[in-house]
Amino acid sequence: MQLSSILDHRSYKTYLGVWIKSQPSKGRGVKSRIAQVLRCHPSFISLVVSGDSHLSLEQGEMLNRFMGHTDEASHFFLLLIQLERSGTPELKNYFLKQMNQIIEKQSVLKERLKFKKILPLEMQARYYSYWYYPAVHMALLIPELQKPEALRRYLKLPIQTVSEVLQFLLSTGLAVEKDGKFLTGTTSVHLGADSPMTSRSHTNWRQKIISSLERIKPQDLHYSSVVSLSRSDVPRIKAALIQAIEEVRDIVKETKEEELFCYTLDLFSLKETET
Q: Which of 5, 162, 209, 211 is the most buried (most CB within 10 A)?
């Protein structure tokens, strides 16, 4: 889970109860799975959520991993546990102060990005660092993939990775959260031909293509060919490929979002520079 999902809570018990009910199974069997993770009886989980029993910090750390919390959300969750376990007003204020600092920092970041229409360069570096950042971002256009668990299953990513990506997308305005679902936001990403991230982006997807060759599906298309050409025909082929790209872009603009695909085109000389 991302930081934004937990910041509004001042009780880890309330937050845990909300999280359990938000699961695809509507909470059925979730308490039993939590009990297995914490190596305790399921009745203890019920006492934690709606009774006087408390999680230990060790159990909180195990739950962080099970729930797929980001690093920031993990820290906040442990602060919530310590807040409720505190025995004096002074100790409660100590943890509340730390929580308020996190909330204030998050608010400042949101305000700084509020009027950004294009993702700042320093944040583009993270967006293009791994293939799954743009993949998760585009997947949010598909209604069936607008929840973390659905993204995890579809992309076969660790739930913590999905949570980290969603937190980044939320913090930059590339995504918004509404009624428990994640939608694309108003901020956009523009990668110019001269961008230092262009090479990184191409490399990420070429590596992904290599892995896709290990499990070719009927709807996939992979084509490679080595040909000899007249120099005068190279611009013609390049123009034909550019036209194909434009035709695909026109189709994509009007299409209904149902599946996530990656497509690439490559045309390059095999001549090596002489040294």
A: 162
Mention every residue, 6+ apart, whose C-beta is less than 8 A from residue 166: 2, 136, 148, 151, 175, 182
Please state the domain count of the chain: 1
Tell me how far apart the alpha carbons of residues 127 and 203 are, in angstroms, rounded to a whole number. Answer: 14
In a domain, 226, yes or no: no
Range of the domain at 79: 3-113
Q: Render pLDDT for 4-31 as a digit per residue (tens, 0 to 9).
A: 678 888 899 999 988 888 877 655 688 8
Name the residue with tokens 């949101």. 110
Alpha-helical (H) ranges within 30-85 are 30-38, 42-50, 57-67, 71-85
Q: List the helix and strand counts (H, then E) for the chain.
A: 12, 2
- Does residue 78 form part of some domain? yes
Give the angle subtended at the CA of 210 by the CAs of 206 and 211, to the nearest 5°: 120
Range 78-84, long-range pairs (CB < 8 A, 24+ positions): 80/6, 80/9, 80/10, 80/11, 80/12, 80/15, 81/12, 81/54, 81/55, 81/57, 82/57, 83/10, 83/12, 84/11, 84/12, 84/13, 84/54
Question: Does residue 147 fall inside a structural domain?
Answer: no
> Quick check: is 67 in a domain?
yes
pTM above 0.70, yes or no: no
Other C-beta atoms lying within 10 Å of the C-beta of residue 141: 15
